[in-house]
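User: Predict the full complex structure for these chains.
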Amino acid sequence: VSLFKQLFENALVVEKQPVMSSLTQRPLVLKTGVRFTVTVRFLANLPELKCHLKVKPVFDKDIEEVKTIKGFRQFVFTKDDSKVLDVSTPGGGLVAEFGHMSLKESKARTKGSNESPLVVTEELHIIKFVTDCQYAGLECKMETSSLPVVVVSATSQVPSAWASIMWFSMLSTSEPRNLSLFVDPPPLLWQQLSQVLSWQFLSAGHRELGEDQLSMLRDKIVDDPDGLVYWNKFSKNDGMWTWIDGILDLIKRHLKDFWKDGFIMGFVSKAKTQLLLKNKQTGNFLIRFSESYREGAITFSWVEHTNGETIVHAVEPYTKKELSAESLPDIIDHFSLRKTTNNPLVYLYPDIPRDSAFGRYYTTSGMSPKNKDGYWHRKRVNVIDCTTPPPSPPPKEGNMDIEMDPSQVKHSIEDTMKELFPGLQDYSGSHLPWKTYEDA
Amino acid sequence: VSLFKQLFENALVVEKQPVMSSLTQRPLVLKTGVRFTVTVRFLANLPELKCHLKVKPVFDKDIEEVKTIKGFRQFVFTKDDSKVLDVSTPGGGLVAEFGHMSLKESKARTKGSNESPLVVTEELHIIKFVTDCQYAGLECKMETSSLPVVVVSATSQVPSAWASIMWFSMLSTSEPRNLSLFVDPPPLLWQQLSQVLSWQFLSAGHRELGEDQLSMLRDKIVDDPDGLVYWNKFSKNDGMWTWIDGILDLIKRHLKDFWKDGFIMGFVSKAKTQLLLKNKQTGNFLIRFSESYREGAITFSWVEHTNGETIVHAVEPYTKKELSAESLPDIIDHFSLRKTTNNPLVYLYPDIPRDSAFGRYYTTSGMSPKNKDGYWHRKRVNVIDCTTPPPSPPPKEGNMDIEMDPSQVKHSIEDTMKELFPGLQDYSGSHLPWKTYEDA
DNA sequence: ACAGTTTCCCGTAAATGC
DNA sequence: TGCATTTACGGGAAACTG
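Assistant: Here is the predicted structure of the four-chain assembly.
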């Protein structure tokens, strides 16, 4: 349930009179056939109402503006569709937990299913909870609504769905809710997008993007004089988001610590890399994301001064597959030219002895050469067939902790996030609202 | 459907009068909730019967001898349970294909579900197809039965299930069908078991086990003076089968070609390895399966003569995970001692230059050192921290094909298999009846 | 033919049951 | 509580469907 279990809490809102309207809920991606949980909370603590409130979930209630879109899909709940009585809980307030909800597409899409103007990950749906309360002679209908939800059928669609939810959220700060947003998606200011992208990195790796990194990304996606970013360029086939999402995935799975430490420069162009390295001494290297590998990959570039010539080398990028076999620090530690003992990576830019940055992460140093069964332990050394004379060996000098530029997290970020996501309450660094699916 | 799609063909058999009884069907492992297909064939070509035969599948019909076993599970068909009319086909004969069958456990196990005498993979079930034929005033009931089937709920149970099916089949050559076999499983002669094991390797890697290999296995499992093998020792927790199945898996996924070539000695004890290598020149090595890694792993041992002393080294075994990152030939090619260029693996036992055996499989030799984007290609070199002086470098001398002992396949195997599996007809080397689940 | 979408299912992890 | 068994579901790939 990992992906969808996150409960989003809803306040019950008296129809037309939102007396209690603190929606505390997250944007969400739901997958058909996969269980998710929703908790509905009645904000006022009126114990007298206990057992008098019956809540029922309804999918896409009263959103006719969207249901007329050609090919718009319809879904029904397959489990826990039944109403559930409210119960009082220790925390105070009346709560109902729908713990086994799951969606199934009901055929009969809106007619004209060919030439749909939206791809499925651009369809925004709504889950409402309605209650009909009769108490003390009074009768009132209440309902509360989720923020828009994207329904997908395969995990591979999640990144696109996420892009939609980000775009929607950013536009919702200025405009009223518009579920048919993507029929004609408005552009966004780079200023807005960059902030949200930065948060993704905060969420995935506990460190935002810096000015230089953002400026490199800006150069890649903004070609509008007013600094506007267009949906198609961001999200469509080979848009920037596919690439960034792959990198976020890489960070979350394999690079969390080094990213947090700030050792990964990441978004640097090749030209900038040359510029930075060419004046440093031989063996200086920096770590950057591949711009050509669409699935997200990381590589390092190092400088070599030889025969009065300066060369900046780069190794073939490492992907998810390789990083799961060996961690980046180990890869760097074991890196070698042509089966010699010479590792050209001597100083992490700028001038940090390699082992100072990575030594603490090495898994193979100090290991006994044989294991208990008498087998030799082996290391995988990544060598390249470079025939230039190798530079001098790196200084192995223990694991002194060098403080790079400490975390740049602006603490105002929390406030800004709350502005965008009114209901968000439990920001805590490890429970960010973005990309919370699949938190290892 | 890969795992269960294999259709097994059944002949309709007149009850009590098996006029047409050529059952052509394979033993099978079925997984709950996963589709499988069954084709039922009426052997006699009587076109007049067309459209008069309605066939219905029934699970565990008339096997009361088993249903009284405590905790015995019951299953029902969830799809295609409906009867299907027979139709004539080009091949001749009347055929019905049940193309979307799937099983679901029906609660209410046989009472006393605690202390079941059988684990689920020891439960043998039967699928029968019944037909009630009224034609030209005659009425006759016909039915045909599958060979026993084991029903599992997770892929991890398949190896155990397979063990049961092998054991059942081997015993069925002498005894009548006994579905409660595993309540008190009889032992088997090593002679029988060894043959079946050998076939597994033929099926997985197109090469049987040799005499020496079998004898090593025999030593591991037979401690009975009469050469009997006991079910518990073969199949239970850390029985031999878990280990062998892991190795079969390794072969099927990563070692098919080298196994077929006979370059993998595989089943050799450490003592035997010492014996074989100690008189060969430094750098001789042989490839064997790890005896201690339960999940299936492969390693190599090599001999070194130094200072008048003879040492046989062994490297930490390689598992599925490592082999999927790098092939065994590449691992061997890139193997090195302490980041020098010296690969101690020089001759494959006995005296075959390394590259003669493996050169043709190397994926990184002759590769341009840089790829089209200007990145250096890298090799993963497996080095060990051995400080003894390295032996002389290996002879790289092209890919001449050395013929080792050509395939030892006895061609009588097909006959013997037919004896064990009466209905088996399409033996073809690539469609063996064993371990046919998950043929890549 | 093809691209977008869904289904299928292995393999692993987590949950469940006894 | 531990172990045997089932359920859950990510991820990759095949199958579907207009």
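Residues 1, 32-33, 105, 116, 119-120, 152-154, 157 of chain B lie near DNA strand D (CB under 10 Å from a C1').
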